[in-house]
Amino acid sequence: MLSKKQLENSVKYLEELGFDKPEVGIVLGTGLGQLVDKIQEPIVAHYNNIPSFPLATVEFHTGKLIYGTMGGKKVVVMQGRFHLYEGYDFMDITYPIRVMNELGIKNLLISNAAGAVNLNMKKGDMMLIDDHINLQGGSPLAFKNVGEFGERFVDMSAPYDKQMCAKIKDIASSKKITLHTGVYASVVGPQLETRAEYRMLKILGADAVGMSTVPEVIVANHLGLPVVAVSVLTDECDPDNLQPINVPEIIEVAGKAEPKMVELFRSLIESL
């Protein structure tokens, strides 16, 4: 069960380390670590040193919180997130969002690597998430004492902040960066989808599919924290021409697209 004491212990440790009133929180997805190179005067906290924090397991995630300055703002970056497919529960997955909120962030930026279900979108493109479908079979708000942390019944009519979404679209347009807008479906994983599942996702109205992001967005809404999320599309999910999965290629595609995502996030942070 989540307790305020746990959060206090985590926050106290980070504040003593020098995490001083960050304004923006950032969650980095698989293969999307280059953004940390843009942080000035970084202070690093490894997850395994932060009291009450889960530990990262996936080899593509390094497991640390990084505090510093970017775009003229104090930021805290989560390099390495937690997933259901690693055996974590929704409380673990979203705990860092609650910690960043307690540290004082006013906006949350999320990135992920996803598969393109909408075949008008190509691998290497990016998609601004306008809405989502939760297919993970649970909620990070389904626990007994959730009322201690906010309203139990959270409105999700517009989970992604309209102002930040408009700003990031304008930035993409001015920098001639292709940024689609669409619906992200979040599944459990870690296996990828079958041909029939891709067809199902298309029928449901998904434009992209991944294994993260939605729990964090739900908790951000629970906390009244404005959130924006961008998917880097690393593969094309065509059920009529489905190729065996190539994980190194997915990581490579994410890495090539990442400078554009970093530019979008940096410019958005400047504008906040």
Structural commentary:
It holds the Pfam family PNP_UDP_1. InterPro entries: Nucleoside_phosphorylase_d (IPR000845), Nucleoside_phosphorylase_sf (IPR035994), Pur_Nuc_Pase_Ino/Guo-sp (IPR011270), Purine_phosphorylase (IPR011268). It comes from Nonlabens tegetincola. GO terms for molecular function: purine-nucleoside phosphorylase activity. Belongs to the PNP/MTAP phosphorylase family. By secondary structure, this protein is an alpha/beta fold. The protein has a single domain, classed as 3-Layer(aba) Sandwich (Rossmann fold). Helices cover 31% and strands 24% of the residues. The protein is built from six helices and nine strands. It has helices at residues 4-17, 90-103, 162-174, 195-204, 214-222, 247-271; strands at residues 24-28, 40-46, 64-70, 73-79, 107-116, 126-134, 179-186, 208-210, 227-236. The protein has a five-stranded mixed barrel with strand order 5-8-7-6-9. Helix 3 (162-174) crosses helix 6 (247-271). It is globular, with a radius of gyration of 18 Å. It starts with a helix and ends with a helix. The mean pLDDT is 94.
The CATH architecture would be 3-Layer(aba) Sandwich
Task: Report mean pLDDT, rounded to a whole number.
Answer: 94
From the N-terminal CA to the C-terminal CA, the straight-line distance is: 35 Å
Summarize the amount of helix as a percent range: 25-40%
The secondary-structure element order is HEEEEHEEHEHEHEH
